[in-house]
Amino acid sequence: MSFTDAPVTKALVLGLAGFSVAASIFDIKHYFYISIGTHFLRYGQVWRIFTYQLCYTNSSEVLFGVMSLYHMRMVERFWGSRKYASFILIAGLITAVLPPFFLSVFLRPLSFGALDYIPAGPTPILFAILAQYHAMIPQIYKYKVALSASSPPSSNASDDTSGFIFSDKSTRYLMALQLALFQWPGSLLGAVVGWVVGYLWRNDLLPTAVSRWRVPGWVVGLRSQKRNDRFDGIRRRLEDEGASSAGVATGAQPAVEGEGSRRRPLGQQLIDEVRGAF
């Protein structure tokens, strides 16, 4: 129960909590949501599409968002930090644009201006990760929530008690569902778009250049290939020098021009050892 092998998840959790707390302390939460009619059409604040996913504006959403990110850290462990960071960045850019676009072009005109609001928070990114979690992580166990009280069934009898069957992954889905419904319909729109983006990534339906792009290795603490090649060259030279030293230590003497290869006498070896010590 830690962030071992999940540095990107750790950075996301700390960043989400830190930005959310800072937005509350400095009273700037009004910069992190979108109203199509006010912010886009009236004041032209298009830059909000790149800021509305940086933080949540209430403590309940922060709690559920941080817990969801933490519990889905297994996706990073399966993929590796570099691929996971690349996916987060690409999904964040796509989901930053699509929800405001669909809301302003389709939903707002069809609802005669009633649907106009997108709440703050990275709910679309969380649902893009959830799509990977759903496809990759298998369930470990199931349990039933009974609808009526009854005596425990015997070992030989089947359990016919009516109820709902859940898996160990159900708590993750319930937390995500809560985030989708906190400030619906805007939050629900972001959740749906995020899940679709995650599904498209999972099934290789995005452009190849997008799905195969990776962040530089230094972003997640990986050494560059050039530096690795340099150290490999040094390692090979040390191994060659070690092999030469081993040959001297075993008494092997290189062949001299005009003479056959032979071993030195024991007395000569002892003299060479004493001379090398001084």
TrEMBL record:
GO BP, sorted A to Z: retrograde vesicle-mediated transport, Golgi to endoplasmic reticulum
Transmembrane intervals: 12-34, 49-72, 84-105, 179-201
Keyword set, alphabetical order: Membrane, Transmembrane, Transmembrane helix
Membrane association type: Multi-pass membrane protein
Annotated spans, Disordered: 242-278
Keyword Membrane among record annotations: yes
GO molecular function, one term: serine-type endopeptidase activity
Alphabetical list of SMART domains matching this protein: DUF1751
Protein's UniProt name: Peptidase S54 rhomboid domain-containing protein
Biological classification of the source: Eukaryota, Fungi, Dikarya, Ascomycota, Pezizomycotina
